[in-house]
Amino acid sequence: MTPSSNAPVPVFKLYGETQHWPTPDLLHCESIPERSRLHDWRIRPHRHADLVHILLIDQGSVSLELEGTRHELQSVAAIVVPAMAIHGFHFSPDVQGHIITLAKPLAEHLHTLLGESSTLKKADFFRLSLAHEQTRITTLVTQIDREYRQPAPGRSLLLEALIQALVVELSRLGHAVGSPKRRYTPRQNDKGQQHVEQFQTLIETHYREQPSIEWLAGQVGVSSAHLNMLCRQLAGRSALQLLHERLLLEAKRQLTYTNMTIGQVSDSLGFSEPAYFTRFFKRNTALSPRDFRTRQSQGR
After folding, report:
1. Which positions are tagged coiled coil (predicted)?
2. In the chain, domain spans
3. 85 in Cβ contact with 67 (< 8 Å)
4. pLDDT tens digit string along 81-125?
5. Are the C-beta atoms of residues 126 and 170 closer than 8 Å to each other?
6. What is the DSSP letter of 10?
7. What is the pTM of this model?
8. Which class would CATH give 27-174?
9. Using the 8-state DSSP alphabet, how is residue 234 labeled?
10. What is the Cα 122 distance to its own chain's centre?
11. What per-residue string of b and e applies to 39-68 under the rule 16 or more CB within 10 Å gives b?
């Protein structure tokens, strides 16, 4: 059911959930049944402020709601849902496939590499009717899933290479001669959405400097109060929370994947002293940076 124009569209942190991003990785991969069966195969219409979904339907079907339109897709099909697009799914109970979720820093990096040919900025779906299309896309998704679940040396490099190859393949499908143009851009509050997207781009460029919200709002061309209102309305968090979430994600990544000391991590993220960084980290994770690093190393 599509939400009414007066009802707020929920903002999810992950596919079907309001919980925080579960890992320091910039990529999350799981089978579609893993989570959708917990929701009786239906994910109600929602949006993500800073995540991009790529779905591959290997078996079964899905009723896709995308920016107010409904599409019935049978396997084999691929779906791309960019940040801020309103979308919902109703899967058949026999569905098989995967959903890959990209955090905004990785999605922006891939979009920069591919330029305007990238398929990550606008919603799209592809019916993979040709055998060679199915083989290429399915093989890449299977490799991503296997590498994601069984970490090994060079994991992050290989995952980035595989996801880049997948995005290239999907972008080619979207630009193929004769390919129907089904792309959708978010409809609601277009100007406000542009402001939030510009703000998120500024965060990605300047988060290590920990700029003030007033300065960032000025760069966007709005007041800090208006920016906060837009962020809460469209992203479900305040402007400061969005900045802090990016800092926290990078702190988790550095603590997990580098040998930098706590002080070095603190300095690299613009904190005036390690004690302030430790308080910030513990307030947001309930763990000290040292305890978080220990737990991550034990679980790898």
Report:
1. none
2. 27-174, 190-299
3. yes
4. 988 888 899 999 999 999 999 988 888 888 888 887 788 877 889
5. yes
6. P
7. 0.75
8. mainly beta
9. H
10. 13
11. eebebbbbbbbbbbbbbbbbebbbebbbbe
